[in-house]
Amino acid sequence: MALFRKAPAHVDEDNPYWMSFSDVMSALLIIFILASVVLIVQLMEIEEELQQKQLEFEQEILELQQAEAVRRTIIHEAAELLQQRGIRVSVSENDTVLSIPNEILGFDTGADQIGLQYRATALEIGEVLSEVIRKENRIDYLDTIFVEGHTDNRPLPGRRGNWGLSADRAVSLWLLWDELLSPEHKLNELKNKDQQLLFSVSGYGPTRPVIENQVTDDDFRANRRIDIRFTIRRPTSEEYKRVLDVHIEGAQ
Question: Which domains does the chain have, with CATH numbers?
Fold first, then answer.
């Protein structure tokens, strides 16, 4: 009687488990490769975005530095020109404010009108400001110029009080400039780069004294003053984008 032996089967044919495991491993490898590619692309996009933000930040810093330099030039040039005319004003430590002392404007206690004998000097200040602001393209770096009125700390009776008095002092100087400055020195027509009027007035009452402990008449007089505060303009996001596009095109 003949005996027949069945030929041994290959492991892969008899054990489908190994085939499915191999397929799974291949699929996992493909998924890993795809995930790695996606991650690399995302990292590249993040790096590009960070580089763009860095460029925008650097451009913003540059623009602000230029604006601050222009403001500093305007204030110190105005102070120097006024000094040459015998008009002594002071510049704040941070180069943002041109301060006009009361002895130049002559505000009496509780009064908001510039004395008649001081009006010519007040007009000279307006003329010098107009000249230095109009030079080159300086006005493009400015946002607002505030004519700020101040009082001493003695309470003023009535509803207006020190706040109203300080604002009225600023308004009186502005109206004098508006009415009597020559056409080539007019300040009321000046506009910033956004086509908004450049000058504004405000009043601080006794809240920003130059002398804290006011005792003598000289102390009170020192706090009755007008400050000209220059604020600089920040470029808009669209301007940053235009500058950034130019920078990128130049690098390509």
Answer: 58-238 (3.30.1330.60)
Residue 203 three-state SS: strand
When computed from its CA atoms, the radius of gyration of the chain, rounded to whole angstroms, is 36
H or E segment to which residue 184 belongs = none
**pLDDT tens digits along 32-62:** 888 888 888 888 888 777 777 776 666 677 8
Q: What is the pLDDT of residues 190-229, one digit of tens each?
A: 999 999 999 999 999 999 999 999 999 999 999 999 999 9
Read off the tokens for 151.
Answer: 């009082």
d(CA 51, CA 47): 6
Q: Within 10 A of 169 (CB to CB), how many other CB atoms are there?
A: 27
132, 77 Cβ separation under 8 angstroms: yes
Longest Cα separation, the chain: 145
Nearest-angstrom CA–CA distance, 152 and 167: 13
Residue among 95, 60, 41 at smallest CA distance from 243: 60
CB of 168 closer than 8 Å to CB of 250: no
Q: In this structure, are residues 121 and 101 in contact, taking their beta carbons and an 8 Å threshold?
A: no
- Alpha carbons 117 and 126: distance in angstroms, whole number: 16
Model pTM score: 0.73
Cα–Cα distances in angstroms (integers) from residue 147 to residues 21, 93, 236, in the given order: 82, 18, 25
**CA 109 to the chain's CA centroid:** 36
Give the percent of the chain with pLDDT over 90. 60
